[in-house]
Here is the input.
Amino acid sequence: MTTTASTMTELDVRADFPILSRKIGGKRLVYLDSSNTSQKPERVIAAIDDYYRNRNANIHRGVYPLAVEADALFEAARERIAAFTGGEARATIFTANATAAINLVAYSWARASLTPQDAVLVTEMEHHANIVPWQLATAATGAQLRWLDIDEQGLLSLDQLDAELATGDVKLVAVAHVSNVLGTINPVKEIVRRAHDAGARVLIDGAQAVPQMPVDVGTIGADFYAWTGHKALGPTGIGVLQADAAVLEQMPPFLAGGDMIERVTRERSTWNELPWKFEAGTSMIAEAVGLGAAVDYLAALGMTRAREHERMLTAYALEQLSALDGIQIHGPLTADARGGLVSFSVDGIHPHDLAELLGREGVCVRASHHCAQPLMAKLGVPATTRASFAAYNVSEDVDALIAAVRSAQRIFA
Amino acid sequence: MDDLYRDFILEHYKRPRNFGELEPHDLEAHEYNPLCGDEIGVQIKVADGKIADLRFNGHGCAISQAAASIATEELIGMDVEEAAKLDADWMLALLGIDISATRRKCALLLLKALRHAITGDGSWPVGATD
Ligand SMILES: Cc1ncc(COP(=O)(O)O)c(C=O)c1O
Here is the structure.
């Protein structure tokens, strides 16, 4: 048997995250809500601070040295962010968040491409961000919205995908890379291959995948890949759309205004080249600099290592939770088949009460429908409790979770 | 002892009073709290201007269900007009526990349904200090 370094000494990068030294009500902060938003390393906070203290100027406009410097910082951040997920800088568009990235596609691409003869395929495990834009886009174009089911383990069926694609009317498949509720890791590369063979485009919601595992958008080959900075150790206010440049070239602009134009006359305008064609108005400059620092941090840590660490924590949490009475775990049963998160229900305790009791022990978990109401309906629960992991969690955090769940069970016994 | 999950709260949560359906009824309403997915429906029978009988149903967190159960015990026999005027302060005082801002709606869901059933006003109840 081989013993890897990660099983000998647990990864512990807590010291890089200032907030983790905070106490809440005298208790150590046990942050298990990273799928909701991640904490930020010192390096990201420092980069944003340095930007505003020393380098702030508007980009794409100034000729003086400070503006040139800000511009270079912004575009260098784009280069590194694009490379982090294996994409091209010119096809990496900054948006407000993942939701805005998906909406960009739903407005610009979908409204120009869908007809009443077409269908958009979504899955039962999608976040509202990857459902509602398609409800609106299909309503606006007369196209149909159809759904792929999940099985009891929270997995999609590629056979059902094939059957849907065989009807010949599917123009777009919109699917999460990793489910924010079930943790399911979907076979996105295979989904893209099958959809492309059937002439459909694919949008992948990578909001939960990019923060916790190696992602290579080039290898996956989707037409659109959306993710969000604040879940990936970066600041709020920045999301990323990585797309096929040829598809982006064909698309009309989405938001219109300054920066996205080449030339404006009274009668008409022409568009800036990629990626700026899709970035109207002053960009989120400090946020891009912050997200650039976040991907530097993650790249230095190593995404394979981060994934392995979070997989181990997930396996430990699954094992410890299963050992308790009255616990139901949602989603795939093994840590290999899921991202670093566990949604569960506790008999007789509503998720909201559980999260409140856990919170008093310093254990931060999310209790809600997780913006996935169609999935809650399928699971037959109003909400679930979710513990999610990031590189800065340690097995002690799982122990604190289990102790707090047991104590809540005693109160409600 | 826990300041929120006191014994009487848990008691009402596990064994809610006046829970179920009321047929026939004169007034009813159904309310939903999107924050935690709590749902409460209320059905009321009116006689001589009073709440002659009342049942609530639904599901949700301990705070929402216990608050509903506790309130129903006060409401049966009350003048309908008087019941329509009850505000958030009444409900929170009845509970007698410290409720954080995020959990307030859980505690007020039954009152919202009650007022909706009587007056047709489905807005969230407020108190004197709101
Ligand atoms: C799977 C998934 N998609 C999309 C989003 C939306 O991310 P944002 O709110 O940053 O747009 C989230 C985050 O809640 C998510 O978990």
Q: What stands out?
A: The longest strand of chain A covers residues 170-176. Chain A touches chain B through 16 residues (CB under 8 Å). Residues 33 and 365 of chain A are 5 Å apart (CA to CA). The first helix of chain A runs from residue 5 to 8.
